[in-house]
Protein backbone atom coordinates (compact mmCIF):
# COMPACT_ATOMS: atom_id res chain seq x y z
CA UNK A 1 0.00 0.00 0.00
CA UNK A 2 2.85 2.39 0.78
CA UNK A 3 4.39 1.73 -2.64
CA UNK A 4 1.05 2.11 -4.39
CA UNK A 5 0.21 5.40 -2.65
CA UNK A 6 3.58 6.98 -3.31
CA UNK A 7 3.43 6.12 -7.01
CA UNK A 8 0.00 7.75 -7.25
CA UNK A 9 0.87 10.97 -5.46
CA UNK A 10 4.42 11.74 -6.58
CA UNK A 11 3.46 13.23 -9.95
CA UNK A 12 1.57 16.15 -8.40
CA UNK A 13 4.72 17.69 -6.91
CA UNK A 14 7.01 16.48 -9.70
CA UNK A 15 4.99 18.46 -12.26
CA UNK A 16 6.03 21.69 -10.54
CA UNK A 17 9.64 20.97 -11.57
CA UNK A 18 8.95 19.15 -14.84
CA UNK A 19 6.93 22.02 -16.33
CA UNK A 20 9.80 24.50 -16.63
CA UNK A 21 12.53 21.97 -17.43
CA UNK A 22 10.66 20.31 -20.31
CA UNK A 23 8.51 23.39 -21.14
CA UNK A 24 5.36 21.31 -20.86
CA UNK A 25 2.11 22.52 -22.35
CA UNK A 26 -1.27 21.65 -20.84
CA UNK A 27 -1.84 18.60 -23.13
CA UNK A 28 1.65 17.33 -22.33
CA UNK A 29 1.01 17.65 -18.59
CA UNK A 30 -2.24 15.72 -18.95
CA UNK A 31 -0.39 13.11 -21.02
CA UNK A 32 2.26 12.57 -18.34
CA UNK A 33 -0.36 12.28 -15.60
CA UNK A 34 -2.68 10.01 -17.58
CA UNK A 35 0.16 7.68 -18.66
CA UNK A 36 -0.04 5.95 -15.27
CA UNK A 37 -3.79 5.09 -15.40
CA UNK A 38 -3.32 4.09 -19.05
CA UNK A 39 -0.58 1.63 -18.10
CA UNK A 40 -2.65 0.49 -15.14
CA UNK A 41 -5.60 -0.23 -17.44
CA UNK A 42 -3.40 -2.39 -19.66
CA UNK A 43 -1.87 -4.13 -16.64
CA UNK A 44 -5.22 -4.84 -15.04
CA UNK A 45 -6.27 -6.83 -18.12
CA UNK A 46 -3.30 -9.17 -17.64
CA UNK A 47 -2.86 -9.44 -13.89
CA UNK A 48 -5.90 -11.54 -13.02
CA UNK A 49 -5.25 -14.44 -15.45
CA UNK A 50 -1.63 -14.45 -14.35
CA UNK A 51 -2.62 -14.57 -10.68
CA UNK A 52 -5.01 -17.44 -11.32
CA UNK A 53 -2.24 -19.36 -13.04
CA UNK A 54 0.88 -18.52 -11.02
CA UNK A 55 -0.55 -17.42 -7.67
CA UNK A 56 -1.06 -14.11 -5.92
CA UNK A 57 2.21 -14.03 -4.00
CA UNK A 58 4.45 -14.96 -6.94
CA UNK A 59 2.98 -12.25 -9.18
CA UNK A 60 3.34 -9.65 -6.42
CA UNK A 61 7.03 -10.54 -6.15
CA UNK A 62 7.56 -10.21 -9.90
CA UNK A 63 5.77 -6.90 -9.80
CA UNK A 64 8.40 -5.51 -7.42
CA UNK A 65 11.04 -6.01 -10.12
CA UNK A 66 8.83 -4.16 -12.60
CA UNK A 67 8.42 -1.23 -10.19
CA UNK A 68 12.18 -1.04 -9.70
CA UNK A 69 12.71 -0.90 -13.48
CA UNK A 70 10.07 1.79 -13.91
CA UNK A 71 11.65 3.87 -11.13
CA UNK A 72 15.06 3.62 -12.81
CA UNK A 73 13.63 4.74 -16.18
CA UNK A 74 11.92 7.77 -14.62
CA UNK A 75 14.98 8.76 -12.61
CA UNK A 76 17.25 8.75 -15.67
CA UNK A 77 14.69 10.17 -18.13
CA UNK A 78 16.35 12.73 -20.47
CA UNK A 79 13.21 13.43 -22.49
CA UNK A 80 9.44 13.54 -22.39
CA UNK A 81 9.15 10.21 -24.18
CA UNK A 82 11.19 8.27 -21.62
CA UNK A 83 9.14 9.93 -18.89
CA UNK A 84 6.00 8.61 -20.57
CA UNK A 85 7.50 5.12 -20.90
CA UNK A 86 8.45 5.07 -17.22
CA UNK A 87 5.01 6.26 -16.20
CA UNK A 88 3.37 3.54 -18.33
CA UNK A 89 5.50 0.83 -16.67
CA UNK A 90 4.74 2.32 -13.28
CA UNK A 91 1.04 2.13 -14.14
CA UNK A 92 1.30 -1.59 -14.86
CA UNK A 93 2.94 -2.11 -11.48
CA UNK A 94 0.32 -0.03 -9.71
CA UNK A 95 -2.44 -2.14 -11.32
CA UNK A 96 -0.90 -5.31 -9.90
CA UNK A 97 -0.76 -3.67 -6.46
CA UNK A 98 -4.38 -2.54 -6.66
CA UNK A 99 -5.69 -5.98 -7.63
CA UNK A 100 -3.31 -8.38 -5.94
CA UNK A 101 -2.97 -6.89 -2.49
CA UNK A 102 -6.67 -6.72 -1.57
CA UNK A 103 -7.30 -10.09 -3.20
CA UNK A 104 -4.54 -11.79 -1.24
CA UNK A 105 -5.52 -10.12 2.04
CA UNK A 106 -9.19 -11.12 1.70
CA UNK A 107 -8.26 -14.76 1.06
CA UNK A 108 -5.91 -15.23 4.02
CA UNK A 109 -7.83 -13.21 6.64
CA UNK A 110 -10.39 -14.58 9.07
CA UNK A 111 -13.91 -13.16 8.43
CA UNK A 112 -13.90 -11.01 11.57
CA UNK A 113 -10.55 -9.47 10.66
CA UNK A 114 -10.87 -9.27 6.89
CA UNK A 115 -12.25 -5.74 6.88
CA UNK A 116 -9.46 -4.38 9.07
CA UNK A 117 -6.74 -6.15 7.07
CA UNK A 118 -7.96 -4.94 3.69
CA UNK A 119 -8.47 -1.45 5.11
CA UNK A 120 -4.91 -1.55 6.45
CA UNK A 121 -3.82 -1.67 2.82
CA UNK A 122 -5.72 1.57 2.25
CA UNK A 123 -3.92 3.02 5.28
CA UNK A 124 -0.65 2.13 3.59
CA UNK A 125 -1.83 3.87 0.43
CA UNK A 126 -2.65 7.07 2.33
CA UNK A 127 0.71 6.94 4.12
CA UNK A 128 2.34 6.60 0.71
CA UNK A 129 0.50 9.68 -0.52
CA UNK A 130 1.61 11.62 2.54
CA UNK A 131 5.19 10.45 1.94
CA UNK A 132 4.99 11.61 -1.67
CA UNK A 133 3.77 15.09 -0.69
CA UNK A 134 6.35 15.38 2.09
CA UNK A 135 9.11 14.29 -0.30
CA UNK A 136 8.02 16.94 -2.76
CA UNK A 137 8.22 19.60 -0.07
CA UNK A 138 11.73 18.49 0.97
CA UNK A 139 13.31 17.44 -2.34
CA UNK A 140 11.99 19.82 -5.00
CA UNK A 141 13.31 20.99 -7.45
CA UNK A 142 15.21 17.65 -7.66
CA UNK A 143 12.43 15.64 -9.30
CA UNK A 144 14.80 12.75 -10.11
CA UNK A 145 15.09 11.91 -6.42
CA UNK A 146 11.30 11.89 -6.19
CA UNK A 147 11.16 9.22 -8.89
CA UNK A 148 13.99 7.18 -7.32
CA UNK A 149 12.13 6.52 -4.07
CA UNK A 150 9.55 4.09 -5.61
CA UNK A 151 12.42 1.71 -6.40
CA UNK A 152 13.49 1.67 -2.74
CA UNK A 153 9.91 1.09 -1.62
CA UNK A 154 9.60 -1.81 -4.07
CA UNK A 155 12.72 -3.39 -2.55
CA UNK A 156 11.13 -3.06 0.90
CA UNK A 157 7.92 -4.64 -0.38
CA UNK A 158 9.87 -7.54 -1.89
CA UNK A 159 11.52 -8.21 1.47
CA UNK A 160 8.16 -8.13 3.27
CA UNK A 161 6.63 -10.62 0.84
CA UNK A 162 9.17 -13.35 1.53
CA UNK A 163 7.76 -14.80 4.79
CA UNK A 164 4.09 -14.61 3.73
CA UNK A 165 2.25 -17.90 3.02
CA UNK A 166 0.37 -18.62 -0.23
CA UNK A 167 -3.40 -18.19 -0.35
CA UNK A 168 -5.23 -21.34 0.85
CA UNK A 169 -8.02 -20.64 -1.66
CA UNK A 170 -5.54 -20.56 -4.52
CA UNK A 171 -3.94 -23.81 -3.29
CA UNK A 172 -7.34 -25.55 -3.19
CA UNK A 173 -8.18 -24.26 -6.66
CA UNK A 174 -4.92 -25.85 -7.85
CA UNK A 175 -5.79 -29.16 -6.13
CA UNK A 176 -3.12 -28.88 -3.41
CA UNK A 177 -5.22 -29.71 -0.36
CA UNK A 178 -2.44 -30.75 2.09
CA UNK A 179 -0.58 -27.49 1.54
CA UNK A 180 -3.82 -25.52 1.88
CA UNK A 181 -4.60 -27.21 5.21
CA UNK A 182 -1.08 -26.51 6.51
CA UNK A 183 -1.32 -22.84 5.50
CA UNK A 184 -4.76 -22.46 7.09
CA UNK A 185 -3.53 -23.95 10.37
CA UNK A 186 -0.66 -21.47 10.33
CA UNK A 187 -3.02 -18.56 9.65
CA UNK A 188 -5.59 -19.64 12.28
CA UNK A 189 -3.20 -20.26 15.12
CA UNK A 190 -5.10 -20.53 18.40
CA UNK A 191 -8.30 -21.93 16.88
CA UNK A 192 -9.44 -25.48 17.52
CA UNK A 193 -8.83 -28.03 14.77
CA UNK A 194 -12.55 -28.60 14.20
CA UNK A 195 -13.07 -24.95 13.27
CA UNK A 196 -10.09 -25.02 10.92
CA UNK A 197 -11.30 -28.21 9.22
CA UNK A 198 -14.80 -26.76 8.91
CA UNK A 199 -13.45 -23.60 7.27
CA UNK A 200 -11.29 -25.68 4.93
CA UNK A 201 -14.28 -27.82 3.89
CA UNK A 202 -16.35 -24.69 3.28
CA UNK A 203 -13.67 -23.17 1.06
CA UNK A 204 -13.19 -26.48 -0.75
CA UNK A 205 -16.93 -26.85 -1.36
CA UNK A 206 -17.22 -23.33 -2.72
CA UNK A 207 -14.23 -23.78 -5.03
CA UNK A 208 -15.58 -27.11 -6.32
CA UNK A 209 -19.06 -25.76 -7.02
CA UNK A 210 -17.74 -22.71 -8.82
CA UNK A 211 -14.80 -24.26 -10.64
CA UNK A 212 -16.78 -24.74 -13.85
CA UNK A 213 -17.76 -21.12 -14.12
CA UNK A 214 -16.27 -18.78 -16.69
CA UNK A 215 -15.77 -15.02 -16.75
CA UNK A 216 -18.61 -14.78 -19.30
CA UNK A 217 -20.96 -15.97 -16.55
CA UNK A 218 -20.49 -12.61 -14.84
CA UNK A 219 -22.51 -10.84 -17.53
CA UNK A 220 -24.44 -13.60 -19.31
CA UNK A 221 -27.22 -14.12 -16.77
CA UNK A 222 -27.98 -14.52 -13.08
CA UNK A 223 -28.36 -18.27 -13.46
CA UNK A 224 -25.26 -18.94 -11.35
CA UNK A 225 -25.51 -17.35 -7.94
CA UNK A 226 -26.41 -13.84 -9.00
CA UNK A 227 -23.07 -13.32 -10.76
CA UNK A 228 -24.34 -10.58 -13.06
CA UNK A 229 -25.76 -8.59 -10.15
CA UNK A 230 -22.45 -8.89 -8.31
CA UNK A 231 -20.54 -7.72 -11.37
CA UNK A 232 -22.84 -4.76 -11.98
CA UNK A 233 -22.52 -3.68 -8.35
CA UNK A 234 -18.74 -3.88 -8.61
CA UNK A 235 -18.60 -1.94 -11.89
CA UNK A 236 -20.88 0.81 -10.61
CA UNK A 237 -18.91 1.18 -7.39
CA UNK A 238 -15.57 1.66 -9.15
CA UNK A 239 -17.11 4.08 -11.66
CA UNK A 240 -18.61 6.19 -8.90
CA UNK A 241 -15.32 6.06 -7.02
CA UNK A 242 -13.32 7.53 -9.91
CA UNK A 243 -15.92 9.92 -11.32
CA UNK A 244 -16.25 11.57 -7.91
CA UNK A 245 -13.09 13.48 -8.81
CA UNK A 246 -10.89 12.10 -6.05
CA UNK A 247 -8.19 10.99 -8.49
CA UNK A 248 -7.82 14.59 -9.67
CA UNK A 249 -6.86 15.61 -6.15
CA UNK A 250 -4.24 12.85 -6.09
CA UNK A 251 -2.65 13.72 -9.41
CA UNK A 252 -3.12 17.50 -9.38
CA UNK A 253 -3.12 18.35 -5.65
CA UNK A 254 -0.67 21.32 -5.89
CA UNK A 255 -2.44 22.56 -9.04
CA UNK A 256 -5.87 22.47 -7.37
CA UNK A 257 -4.45 24.24 -4.33
CA UNK A 258 -2.99 26.93 -6.59
CA UNK A 259 -6.49 27.51 -7.96
CA UNK A 260 -7.83 28.31 -4.47
CA UNK A 261 -5.19 30.84 -3.50
CA UNK A 262 -1.94 29.03 -2.60
CA UNK A 263 0.45 30.82 -4.94
CA UNK A 264 4.00 29.63 -4.22
CA UNK A 265 5.30 26.12 -4.73
CA UNK A 266 6.15 25.78 -1.04
CA UNK A 267 2.62 26.77 -0.03
CA UNK A 268 1.16 24.30 -2.50
CA UNK A 269 3.32 21.34 -1.42
CA UNK A 270 2.80 22.16 2.27
CA UNK A 271 -0.99 22.30 1.80
CA UNK A 272 -0.77 19.03 -0.15
CA UNK A 273 0.94 17.50 2.89
CA UNK A 274 -2.12 18.57 4.86
CA UNK A 275 -4.30 16.71 2.39
CA UNK A 276 -2.15 13.62 2.83
CA UNK A 277 -2.28 13.86 6.63
CA UNK A 278 -6.09 14.10 6.56
CA UNK A 279 -6.24 11.00 4.35
CA UNK A 280 -4.12 9.05 6.84
CA UNK A 281 -6.21 10.07 9.86
CA UNK A 282 -9.48 9.33 8.04
CA UNK A 283 -8.25 5.93 6.98
CA UNK A 284 -7.40 5.10 10.60
CA UNK A 285 -10.98 5.98 11.54
CA UNK A 286 -12.27 3.71 8.77
CA UNK A 287 -9.99 0.95 9.96
CA UNK A 288 -11.62 1.10 13.39
CA UNK A 289 -15.21 1.30 12.14
CA UNK A 290 -15.45 -0.81 9.00
CA UNK A 291 -16.21 -4.08 10.82
CA UNK A 292 -18.40 -2.44 13.48
CA UNK A 293 -20.58 -0.05 11.51
CA UNK A 294 -20.73 -2.05 8.28
CA UNK A 295 -19.62 -1.45 4.70
CA UNK A 296 -22.96 -0.21 3.35
CA UNK A 297 -23.60 2.40 6.04
CA UNK A 298 -20.08 3.80 5.68
CA UNK A 299 -20.52 4.11 1.90
CA UNK A 300 -23.82 5.97 2.28
CA UNK A 301 -22.55 8.38 4.94
CA UNK A 302 -19.22 8.98 3.21
CA UNK A 303 -20.67 9.74 -0.22
CA UNK A 304 -23.23 12.12 1.36
CA UNK A 305 -20.48 14.11 3.09
CA UNK A 306 -18.43 14.12 -0.13
CA UNK A 307 -21.39 15.57 -2.05
CA UNK A 308 -21.95 18.28 0.56
CA UNK A 309 -18.28 19.28 0.61
CA UNK A 310 -18.08 19.55 -3.18
CA UNK A 311 -21.30 21.59 -3.27
CA UNK A 312 -19.85 24.07 -0.79
CA UNK A 313 -16.55 24.22 -2.70
CA UNK A 314 -18.38 24.94 -5.96
CA UNK A 315 -20.29 27.78 -4.30
CA UNK A 316 -17.09 29.26 -2.81
CA UNK A 317 -15.27 29.27 -6.16
CA UNK A 318 -18.33 30.67 -7.97
CA UNK A 319 -18.58 33.57 -5.51
CA UNK A 320 -14.85 34.23 -5.78
CA UNK A 321 -14.99 34.25 -9.58
CA UNK A 322 -17.86 36.73 -9.60
CA UNK A 323 -15.95 38.93 -7.14
CA UNK A 324 -12.92 38.82 -9.41
CA UNK A 325 -14.97 39.78 -12.46
CA UNK A 326 -16.50 42.76 -10.67
CA UNK A 327 -13.17 44.04 -9.37
CA UNK A 328 -11.16 43.51 -12.56
CA UNK A 329 -13.84 44.29 -15.13
CA UNK A 330 -12.91 41.24 -17.23
CA UNK A 331 -14.04 37.66 -17.65
CA UNK A 332 -12.15 35.18 -15.52
CA UNK A 333 -10.49 32.17 -17.12
CA UNK A 334 -8.51 29.85 -14.92
CA UNK A 335 -4.86 29.82 -15.87
CA UNK A 336 -3.39 26.65 -14.37
CA UNK A 337 -3.61 24.83 -17.69
CA UNK A 338 -0.96 26.97 -19.32
CA UNK A 339 2.68 26.50 -20.08
CA UNK A 340 4.32 27.77 -16.92
CA UNK A 341 7.66 29.03 -15.75
CA UNK A 342 8.32 28.17 -12.12
CA UNK A 343 11.22 29.37 -10.01
CA UNK A 344 11.34 26.77 -7.27
CA UNK A 345 14.31 28.37 -5.55
CA UNK A 346 12.40 31.60 -4.97
CA UNK A 347 9.13 29.72 -4.25
CA UNK A 348 7.21 31.73 -6.82
CA UNK A 349 5.41 30.89 -10.02
CA UNK A 350 4.17 32.68 -13.07
CA UNK A 351 2.36 31.71 -16.24
CA UNK A 352 2.38 33.45 -19.57
CA UNK A 353 -0.51 33.72 -21.98
CA UNK A 354 -1.84 36.23 -24.47
CA UNK A 355 -5.51 36.04 -23.51
CA UNK A 356 -5.73 34.23 -20.17
CA UNK A 357 -5.04 35.47 -16.67
CA UNK A 358 -1.70 34.19 -15.50
CA UNK A 359 -2.25 33.89 -11.76
CA UNK A 360 -4.41 30.77 -11.77
CA UNK A 361 -6.12 31.75 -8.51
CA UNK A 362 -9.68 32.89 -7.96
CA UNK A 363 -8.51 34.68 -4.82
CA UNK A 364 -5.69 36.69 -6.40
CA UNK A 365 -7.68 39.89 -5.98
CA UNK A 366 -7.50 39.36 -2.23
CA UNK A 367 -4.56 39.36 0.14
CA UNK A 368 -2.39 36.32 0.76
CA UNK A 369 -3.96 35.85 4.20
CA UNK A 370 -7.58 35.88 3.02
CA UNK A 371 -9.83 33.36 4.77
CA UNK A 372 -11.44 32.50 1.42
CA UNK A 373 -8.59 30.30 0.27
CA UNK A 374 -8.37 28.53 3.63
CA UNK A 375 -12.13 27.97 3.72
CA UNK A 376 -11.93 26.43 0.24
CA UNK A 377 -9.06 24.25 1.44
CA UNK A 378 -11.12 23.20 4.46
CA UNK A 379 -13.98 21.99 2.24
CA UNK A 380 -11.52 20.01 0.12
CA UNK A 381 -10.11 18.45 3.30
CA UNK A 382 -13.62 17.42 4.35
CA UNK A 383 -14.09 15.80 0.93
CA UNK A 384 -10.76 13.99 1.24
CA UNK A 385 -11.58 12.83 4.77
CA UNK A 386 -14.98 11.47 3.73
CA UNK A 387 -13.54 9.66 0.73
CA UNK A 388 -10.63 8.15 2.66
CA UNK A 389 -12.97 6.89 5.38
CA UNK A 390 -15.52 5.42 2.99
CA UNK A 391 -15.15 4.97 -0.76
CA UNK A 392 -11.38 4.67 -0.63
CA UNK A 393 -11.05 1.44 1.38
CA UNK A 394 -14.61 0.09 1.43
CA UNK A 395 -15.16 -0.25 -2.33
CA UNK A 396 -12.18 -2.56 -2.72
CA UNK A 397 -13.16 -4.45 0.41
CA UNK A 398 -16.65 -5.10 -0.99
CA UNK A 399 -15.16 -6.18 -4.33
CA UNK A 400 -12.89 -8.67 -2.59
CA UNK A 401 -15.92 -10.17 -0.80
CA UNK A 402 -18.82 -10.42 -3.26
CA UNK A 403 -17.29 -12.57 -6.02
CA UNK A 404 -16.98 -16.39 -5.95
CA UNK A 405 -13.55 -17.88 -5.33
CA UNK A 406 -13.01 -19.30 -8.83
CA UNK A 407 -13.82 -15.95 -10.48
CA UNK A 408 -12.66 -13.55 -7.79
CA UNK A 409 -9.29 -12.66 -9.32
CA UNK A 410 -10.69 -12.09 -12.81
CA UNK A 411 -13.81 -10.30 -11.60
CA UNK A 412 -11.84 -7.92 -9.39
CA UNK A 413 -9.40 -7.49 -12.27
CA UNK A 414 -12.23 -6.55 -14.64
CA UNK A 415 -13.57 -4.01 -12.14
CA UNK A 416 -10.05 -2.71 -11.65
CA UNK A 417 -9.69 -2.26 -15.42
CA UNK A 418 -12.88 -0.23 -15.49
CA UNK A 419 -11.64 1.76 -12.50
CA UNK A 420 -8.41 2.69 -14.27
CA UNK A 421 -10.26 3.50 -17.48
CA UNK A 422 -12.50 5.92 -15.59
CA UNK A 423 -9.44 7.33 -13.83
CA UNK A 424 -7.80 7.86 -17.21
CA UNK A 425 -10.84 9.79 -18.42
CA UNK A 426 -10.89 12.07 -15.37
CA UNK A 427 -7.15 12.72 -15.28
CA UNK A 428 -6.86 13.50 -18.99
CA UNK A 429 -9.81 15.90 -18.90
CA UNK A 430 -9.42 17.65 -15.53
CA UNK A 431 -7.28 20.63 -16.57
CA UNK A 432 -9.32 21.11 -19.74
CA UNK A 433 -12.54 21.08 -17.72
CA UNK A 434 -11.17 23.68 -15.33
CA UNK A 435 -10.28 25.94 -18.20
CA UNK A 436 -13.49 25.26 -20.10
CA UNK A 437 -16.25 25.45 -17.46
CA UNK A 438 -14.29 26.70 -14.46
CA UNK A 439 -13.87 25.27 -10.98
CA UNK A 440 -17.57 25.72 -10.00
CA UNK A 441 -18.83 23.72 -12.97
CA UNK A 442 -16.13 21.03 -12.70
CA UNK A 443 -16.63 20.31 -9.01
CA UNK A 444 -20.38 20.66 -9.43
CA UNK A 445 -20.25 17.71 -11.85
CA UNK A 446 -18.31 15.69 -9.29
CA UNK A 447 -20.89 16.64 -6.65
CA UNK A 448 -23.63 15.17 -8.84
CA UNK A 449 -21.71 11.89 -9.07
CA UNK A 450 -21.45 11.74 -5.26
CA UNK A 451 -25.23 12.22 -5.00
CA UNK A 452 -25.67 9.25 -7.33
CA UNK A 453 -23.31 7.27 -5.08
CA UNK A 454 -25.58 7.91 -2.08
CA UNK A 455 -28.64 6.57 -3.91
CA UNK A 456 -26.81 3.58 -5.37
CA UNK A 457 -25.24 2.53 -2.07
CA UNK A 458 -28.56 2.79 -0.26
CA UNK A 459 -30.52 0.82 -2.85
CA UNK A 460 -28.21 -1.87 -4.21
CA UNK A 461 -25.03 -2.42 -2.19
CA UNK A 462 -25.28 -5.48 0.12
CA UNK A 463 -23.91 -5.62 3.65
CA UNK A 464 -20.98 -8.07 3.89
CA UNK A 465 -19.53 -7.21 7.29
CA UNK A 466 -18.83 -10.16 9.59
CA UNK A 467 -19.86 -12.81 7.04
CA UNK A 468 -17.77 -15.54 5.49
CA UNK A 469 -17.21 -15.35 1.75
CA UNK A 470 -19.24 -18.54 1.35
CA UNK A 471 -22.23 -17.09 3.23
CA UNK A 472 -22.12 -13.94 1.08
CA UNK A 473 -22.29 -16.15 -2.01
CA UNK A 474 -25.29 -18.07 -0.66
CA UNK A 475 -27.13 -14.83 0.08
CA UNK A 476 -26.59 -13.61 -3.46
CA UNK A 477 -28.05 -16.88 -4.73
CA UNK A 478 -31.16 -16.46 -2.56
CA UNK A 479 -31.58 -12.81 -3.58
CA UNK A 480 -32.12 -13.87 -7.23
CA UNK A 481 -35.54 -15.25 -6.31
CA UNK A 482 -36.52 -12.26 -4.14
CA UNK A 483 -35.34 -13.90 -0.93
CA UNK A 484 -33.25 -12.47 1.84
CA UNK A 485 -29.96 -10.87 0.89
CA UNK A 486 -26.96 -9.26 2.48
CA UNK A 487 -28.37 -5.75 2.07
CA UNK A 488 -29.13 -3.27 4.76
CA UNK A 489 -32.49 -4.67 5.81
CA UNK A 490 -32.10 -8.09 4.21
CA UNK A 491 -34.18 -7.58 1.08
CA UNK A 492 -32.27 -7.13 -2.20
CA UNK A 493 -32.04 -3.70 -3.79
CA UNK A 494 -33.86 -4.82 -6.93
CA UNK A 495 -36.68 -6.28 -4.83
CA UNK A 496 -36.95 -3.04 -2.86
CA UNK A 497 -37.29 -1.02 -6.05
CA UNK A 498 -39.85 -3.44 -7.51
CA UNK A 499 -42.01 -3.29 -4.37
CA UNK A 500 -41.91 0.49 -4.31
CA UNK A 501 -42.82 0.70 -8.01
CA UNK A 502 -45.64 -1.80 -7.53
CA UNK A 503 -47.05 0.16 -4.64
CA UNK A 504 -46.78 3.44 -6.54
CA UNK A 505 -48.47 1.98 -9.64
CA UNK A 506 -51.30 0.57 -7.55
CA UNK A 507 -51.82 3.91 -5.83
CA UNK A 508 -51.83 5.76 -9.13
CA UNK A 509 -54.37 3.39 -10.64
CA UNK A 510 -56.75 3.70 -7.73
CA UNK A 511 -56.91 7.48 -7.91
CA UNK A 512 -57.50 7.95 -4.16
CA UNK A 513 -54.12 7.19 -2.61
CA UNK A 514 -54.75 3.56 -1.61
CA UNK A 515 -53.69 0.35 -3.25
CA UNK A 516 -57.19 -0.81 -4.28
CA UNK A 517 -59.32 2.34 -4.07
CA UNK A 518 -60.65 1.90 -0.51
CA UNK A 519 -59.69 4.69 1.84
CA UNK A 520 -57.95 3.48 4.97
CA UNK A 521 -57.21 0.06 3.49
CA UNK A 522 -53.55 0.37 4.52
CA UNK A 523 -52.30 -1.97 1.80
CA UNK A 524 -50.06 0.62 0.22
CA UNK A 525 -48.50 1.36 3.58
CA UNK A 526 -47.82 -2.33 4.13
CA UNK A 527 -46.19 -2.61 0.72
CA UNK A 528 -43.87 0.25 1.60
CA UNK A 529 -42.91 -1.07 5.02
CA UNK A 530 -39.86 -3.07 3.80
CA UNK A 531 -38.55 0.02 2.01
CA UNK A 532 -39.00 2.28 5.03
CA UNK A 533 -37.50 -0.25 7.43
CA UNK A 534 -34.54 -0.82 5.15
TrEMBL record:
Q: Where in the cell is it found?
A: Membrane
Q: Which reaction does it catalyse?
A: D-glucose(out) = D-glucose(in)
Answer yes or no on keyword Metal-binding.
no
The question of whether Transmembrane helix is a record keyword is answered with: yes
Report the protein name in the record. MFS domain-containing protein
What kind of membrane protein is this, topologically? Multi-pass membrane protein
Q: Which keywords appear in this protein's UniProt record, sorted alphabetically?
A: Membrane, Transmembrane, Transmembrane helix, Transport
User: Which GO CC terms are listed, alphabetically?
Assistant: membrane
Q: Which InterPro entries match?
A: MFS_dom, MFS_sugar_transport-like, MFS_Sugar_Transporter, MFS_trans_sf, Sugar/inositol_transpt, Sugar_transporter_CS
Q: Which family does it belong to?
A: Belongs to the major facilitator superfamily. Sugar transporter (TC 2.A.1.1) family. Glucose transporter subfamily.
Give GO terms for biological process.
D-glucose transmembrane transport
Among the GO molecular function terms of this UniProt record, one is: transmembrane transporter activity
What residues form the membrane-spanning segments?
Answer: 31-50, 62-82, 88-106, 118-139, 145-164, 231-252, 272-291, 298-320, 374-399, 411-437, 443-461
What PANTHER family does this protein map onto?
A: D-XYLOSE-PROTON SYMPORTER-LIKE 2
- The chain positions of domain Major facilitator superfamily (MFS) profile read 1-465
Amino acid sequence: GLTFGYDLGVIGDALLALRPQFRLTCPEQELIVSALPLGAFAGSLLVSPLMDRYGRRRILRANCALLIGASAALTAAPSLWLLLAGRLLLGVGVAVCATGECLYASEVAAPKRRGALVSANELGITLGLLLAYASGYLLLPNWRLLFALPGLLALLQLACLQPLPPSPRYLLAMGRRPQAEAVLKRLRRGQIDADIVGELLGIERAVRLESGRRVADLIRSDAYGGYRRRFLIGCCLVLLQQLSGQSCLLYYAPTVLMSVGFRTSKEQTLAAMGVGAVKVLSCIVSLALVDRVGRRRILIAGSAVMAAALAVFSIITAVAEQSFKRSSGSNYTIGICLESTIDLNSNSSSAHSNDTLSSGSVFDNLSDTTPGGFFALATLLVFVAAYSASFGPVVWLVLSEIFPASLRARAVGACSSLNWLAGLATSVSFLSLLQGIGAPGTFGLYCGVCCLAVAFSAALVPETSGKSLERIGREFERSRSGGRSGGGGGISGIARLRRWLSATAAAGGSGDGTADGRAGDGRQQLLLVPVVED
